[in-house]
DNA sequence: TCCATCAAGATTGTTGACAATCTATTCATT
DNA sequence: AATGAATAGATTGTCAACAATCTTGATGGA
């Protein structure tokens, strides 16, 4: 059996089939494990999720797993088909376009709100965040940098003070890795935090329109990069996909 | 509570405790029954939903009910507390404000998209819808009119061609009745479809900015009306709930 | 009268087993 | 060899019973 794509969280023992450490946390544990696996590009879209495997991994019952899968399905991260089970969601190019469009318009609105309401505490949070992000980039810690790069957009949403919009942004960001599976370890030339730095500067000046414009440009750049990745993946048909480690379980 | 707030759908027999007409539809039936009950103002926020009651009503097992409640919780319509069960969600004034804000910004973006992409077929759908809505209003069929009034905003979202944004708008609209429980049967002076008519006209002209402006004004009017309702409800009932914590979201 | 304590009932949470369905392999036929 | 049917295995869907927890009402004392 291949390596599990799910990462064991500190403080939690790995799957011990006998130990039924169930509880309200079990469902949450499965959800966050799958989310982390998706965000870390350790699990491919289309991978089938088998209830009993997840159950034994998480040391939970199938009921908890089912609840977790329902939660993930609502967040758009897994697809459920009756009698056929759950798979990691696959986004068609059309869906990818819609997700980017949604991010562009919602984040533009959020940035406009933040530009009008940002206080000193928020400005400090933004500054500290940008520092942390650029430090991670310069140190070459790409995994952490990618994580922080996603977190930036979430932080801006949080600064708007609107939990509803923040939840939408979080869902959209979590689906991002599903759009560009191949972009795993490649160092993106657009994912640097210069764009984030400029957006934060515009926010600090109270210029919401400019911040929104920069963010839109930033996201369009990401989308363009994604499309070229997808195209190049098409021409190198089977080799690339089979060569990557995380494949659907052989089972 | 002697009378059930849930309306029996045509084609489905009422609860027959012995008949276990379960299936994949059972969950869906419960979900839509609760949604309809909320939309029809037949069930109050804070009402406790007891699994066994719902199960016997829907002729389904508790498992299906549980799944349905989870779905409703994800949509923000019910709140689940561990070991305490499910209640119809209650929105604090702060949450209500956030929901209106989210609707304003998302629908503005949607209107801008529609204004740039509307074709003849879409224009025809809008026209037909406005006719149907105004007919319902003039005939005094207020329940249908309220339904269509909500549907108008959903139709505009659908015309944008973006399923992601449409889903967000749908969730927000479905939560609307939770914000203004007291406004049940009252004929609102702002809920007429003149506003919708003007928005549709602006869309037909391709003037997205004006459509968004009109829609924002429309929603702010609704929110103001809601606040006066809530204030008058406070003086009659007296007990007002403190700020509720927002529901937990998937990580 | 008010408050703490406690017991009985009610409700949710969990488990395991069973039925229904799908999937993959095998095997017969053309 | 290719195709289609049948069978065995695997997986999901469902259910009823049991355990854990909460709620309600009563009881007794200050």
Which characteristics define this entry?
10 helices, 2 domains, 251 residues, globular, 4% strand, homodimer, mainly alpha, Four Helix Bundle (Hemerythrin (Met), subunit A), DNA-binding, Arc Repressor Mutant, subunit A
**Low-pLDDT residue intervals, each spanning 5 or more residues of chain A:** 8-22, 237-251
Span between N and C termini of chain A? 7 Å
Principal-axes geometry of chain A comes out as: globular
**Class per helix and strand makeup of chain A:** mainly alpha
Please give the order of strands in the largest beta sheet of chain A: 1-3-2
**H/E series of chain A:** HEHHEEHHHHHHH
The share of residues in extended strands of chain A comes to under 5%
> For the record, what CATH class of the largest domain in chain A applies?
Mainly Alpha
Number of strands of chain A: 3
Q: Give average pLDDT of chain A, whole number.
A: 83
- The percent of residues in helical segments of chain A reads 55-70%
Name the chain pair whose interface involves the most residues.
A-B, 33 and 30 residues
Report the total helices of chain A: 10
Quaternary: homodimer
Major sheet characteristics of chain A: 3 strands, antiparallel
How many distinct domains of chain A? Answer: 2
Rg of chain A, nearest Å: 19 Å
CATH architecture of the largest domain in chain A: Up-down Bundle
